[in-house]
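Q: Could you write out the predicted structure for this multi-component system? I'm mainly interested in how the pieces pack against one another.
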Amino acid sequence: MQKFTPTLIFLLLAACQPTGSPPPELADAAARPSFSTSTNEAYDFDTIPSYAGNHQAVYDYIDDHLDEHFAAMQRWLRQPSISAQDVGIDEMAALVRQDLEDIGFAEAEIVPTDGHPGVWGYYDAGAARTLVVYLMYDVQPVNPEDWESPPFAAELIDHELGKVVMARGATNQKGPERAFLNALESIIAVDGKLPVNIMVTAEGEEELGSPHYPQIVDAYVDRLQTADAVMFPFNSQRPDGTVSVILGVKGIIYFEMIANGGAWGGPAVAEIHGSYKAIVGSPVWQLVQALSTLVSADGNTILVPGYYDDIRPPNDEESRLLNAGIEQWSDQQQQEILGVSQWIDGMTGIDAAIEYLYTTTMNIDGIWAGYTGEGTKTILPHRATAKVDSRLPPDIDPDEAIARIRAHLDNSGFEDIEIRQLGGYPASQTSVDAPPVQAALSVFKKYADDLAVQPRVAGSAPFYQFTDRLGLPLVPAGLGFGTGAHAPNEVMLIKPAEGTAAAGLADIEKAYVDFIYALSVSDD
Amino acid sequence: MQKFTPTLIFLLLAACQPTGSPPPELADAAARPSFSTSTNEAYDFDTIPSYAGNHQAVYDYIDDHLDEHFAAMQRWLRQPSISAQDVGIDEMAALVRQDLEDIGFAEAEIVPTDGHPGVWGYYDAGAARTLVVYLMYDVQPVNPEDWESPPFAAELIDHELGKVVMARGATNQKGPERAFLNALESIIAVDGKLPVNIMVTAEGEEELGSPHYPQIVDAYVDRLQTADAVMFPFNSQRPDGTVSVILGVKGIIYFEMIANGGAWGGPAVAEIHGSYKAIVGSPVWQLVQALSTLVSADGNTILVPGYYDDIRPPNDEESRLLNAGIEQWSDQQQQEILGVSQWIDGMTGIDAAIEYLYTTTMNIDGIWAGYTGEGTKTILPHRATAKVDSRLPPDIDPDEAIARIRAHLDNSGFEDIEIRQLGGYPASQTSVDAPPVQAALSVFKKYADDLAVQPRVAGSAPFYQFTDRLGLPLVPAGLGFGTGAHAPNEVMLIKPAEGTAAAGLADIEKAYVDFIYALSVSDD
């Protein structure tokens, strides 16, 4: 049986206050901006009408063909496509391309990149509106022995919520993706064609951090910029049926800080005997001291000059969304799941939520140097490295953030610390008022009792490719429930048990049908 | 062919000044004591008479039995005794015990410890003086494929200096040890008995840091305290024949500093998603910030209050020894070997030598936390650890040093940092005027043209067990040359080629004979 494990998203649970406060010696938040909502008003989701369209013939077609639709999903899930190990990647790309062609996409092409290939598809409906659909066809690696059912068997198994399909990729992301294509097939089968044009960009490296996805966009950027919206097929429901919609992500810079011996001193070639510390400088101390200047003594306030200059408080729209959702934020519940006793500075409630979503961070993901085994070894290492990431709210430019850190290190006497950037991109934000968001919310209201619309998550994704580069509103959307992404026993709910509020495959596909039609007429 | 690789000792080479100076931003040596010699006088080794005794009958016996003596050494070298892997340890302990009994030791006993066993031997000569001989019978592990001749074959092979025996333990330490026992056998064979009583304490865990050697001393401490001197059989010669004698070592404390999530905040159970840094404290930052308070920004001056209080400058005797040896100290040569561009604060010459030998250090041997692999992983680790060692010149108490660090961390707001001590012991110092040192030096003058007597090395060894606990002067002594300790192709010179100044086995044994006799009459 599967359990629901929340990850980055708000946990909409009963509020509860934590106890305790941080050690006063370590509190040093003077330089960190403190934000609050700009209004006490809460977003009123009652203003969004439930989608009124009825596409009964298409719904009936879906019900009549549900077994074939599930078989199509199984076909995708049974094709391994592990990007990190280059297992089945080319076969899966070919499968995606062929399916697009079979569905009726006028263009269906493999897109070479410097990494795994992408797939481009264009369905020309001769329609006024064009929807860009982002797909990822790769999956995380597996340890088959950890699975209750083999990860590429894609069998239907029993779950407390009903029948689920268990497979690597079931919910992240092939399951909802193939459900969306089933919906397209159904519309075409019944109505002859889609009511919107569709541009598909599929990549096979999402699990690697999408290093070559920009090359796929590059190849079609002029056409992509003419579209109206971007959608990711996504299982957005919680087990209780609540639909969670995410409107923004933070950006990120990820870099290594490296200290080596060199002209300044320190062993440059290899570790030396530790007794030489008496007269030889240490790259490890240099890294530790350089790192220590980046943040306050408690590690929570960034001391790089200007680093907070460009961040902003929640705007009115975001404030109303925060106010609408905050009654379900629980400090205690999240802290229990994380194994954390308290938030920094003893923050609670909406203060913690705003800090979580609106501040920038400086985080050490890893650090290493010298001897890290059991017992004692007395060496003066010649090299020390830290992996550091910084989450970037909207309006912080990644290049400028790196430049500020570089300048600060130089001004603090740490010119010899090397910064090796491993990645970076800005934040992405879509307005709740954007047509595809309103279309998705109106469809979700037709099927679900509760909406949870988050202005942003604290995590990062390269959505700026769509919102900033293409200038398009973006909505990850879809009914459905899944869990186990990046873990054993990944599942997606297919046939809900009686009493389960989350949607099964049929309703997921019907909601996609409604979304496509809603989008075709939105903001007309 | 083997090459000589100096390790911790002074490099007695032509002096040369380095260029360059440290980055001014990082120079912060205000709090570090600066020492100089107390006198400009240099120790005059001409005042030490060359040993005048002549034990021709014993020398002749050695020459006549050199093949059997080398065979006895091979017998030790061919018995593996790798303490780290528990290979051959019990067999080697039995071999040492049996050899002592065969030589004529009245007591020859295995000494159980909580680790590998020790061996105790007592030779009762009915003499006025008693010499404690420290032996280690264990060796470092081997990778046989890296060796020119198998590490436990102990074959004679050609070397630029002559015939050497190649084996793990050849010079560290079985070779010189069995040479010393050969000398004892020869005296007894010719003169009927030794001129001094001998107490042997042998351990099988030197390569593990001698964790249970104190238990061996415990078992015989009352008797050991009645002895007059301690000697380690040691190949003290350089290839050019110069005999290097070391009179002191620094002590050390070795500890881990560990930061964990807990009541103060931070993830306590496992790593969490890095985006939570916005509202969750980081054990890695806590460790970095705690470490950063231990030393100045350049990493070279310890900022723990009182940490330098008890260290002292070279006394008159040590100053004379430093002045006698400093003309052969070469900054450039040492820096080239170490791959270091300059010493800290641009120090050179005797200033650097004194800093090296007389200051205490704070060194990070290793540090690790979180993700240390290739590429990016965005986590907030729940644990961070640093391995730290501090070298302790004489008069610094290890327990007090740890207590000062603990108090400093507590006073700086880092009560939550755990200190896990892995080892620690004080320094050891013997006066050049001590009878066994004078005895050794007078014997060395008989065989070698040059002496290099160092008041101290910057490295550490638990010699305090002898000098402080037993109150005995200590001298690591012996002619002979070897290299490759802890490395492949370890060798000891047995039959020097024509023109080689370093001694072969015969002279090594004759010098041990002289040393035993010199000791029997010294300071009478």
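A: Regarding packing and overall arrangement: DSSP finds 13 helices and 20 strands in chain B.
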